[in-house]
Amino acid sequence: MYNIISEENFISVPVKVVPKSSKETVMIENEIIKVKISAPPTDGKANKYLIEFLSKILDIAKNRIELVHGETSRNKVLRITGISESEFLERIK
């Protein structure tokens, strides 16, 4: 479900990022995790803000979220340590 890959110490989460959004939110549409953020997609600002935004939503430290794929794409894969798939899904709802 949601293509989240669970490992022993981390989960890999595919997300679709919508930068320059007027409303910041995390939603699930057709089993795709979509994150709307206000930051522009220039000079890595959206990537940095994505991590900051998700750390607040998930109530975890920023250093536990790593961008592992999709640096210049709207489709990204994040590695999040110290949280299970079920905890992740519960916290974003």
Task: Please characterize this protein's 3D structure.
It is a single chain. This protein is α+β, with helices and mostly antiparallel strands and 93 residues long. It has one domain: Conserved Hypothetical Protein Mth637, Chain: A (2-Layer Sandwich), CATH 3.30.1200. The protein is 24% helix and 35% strand. The chain is built from 2 helices and 6 strands. Strands 1, 2, 3, 4, 5 and 6 form a 6-stranded mixed sheet that branches. A hairpin with a 5-residue loop joins strand 5 and strand 6.
The total of helices stands at 2
Low-confidence stretches: none
CATH fold field value: Conserved Hypothetical Protein Mth637, Chain: A
Number of domains: 1
Taking the sheet with the most strands, its summary is:
6 strands, mixed
Instruction: List how many beta strands DSSP finds.
Output: 6
Write the CATH homologous superfamily: YggU-like
CATH architecture descriptor: 2-Layer Sandwich
Percent helix: 10-25%
Would you tell me the overall average pLDDT?
95
Work out the strand percent: 35-45%
Shape: globular
Main CATH class: Alpha Beta
Question: What structural category arises from helix and sheet content?
Answer: alpha+beta
SSE layout:
Blueprint: E1 5-6, E2 10-18, E3 25-29, E4 32-36, H1 45-58, E5 65-69, E6 75-81, H2 85-92
Parallel strand pairs: 2-4
Antiparallel strand pairs: 1-2, 2-6, 3-4, 5-6
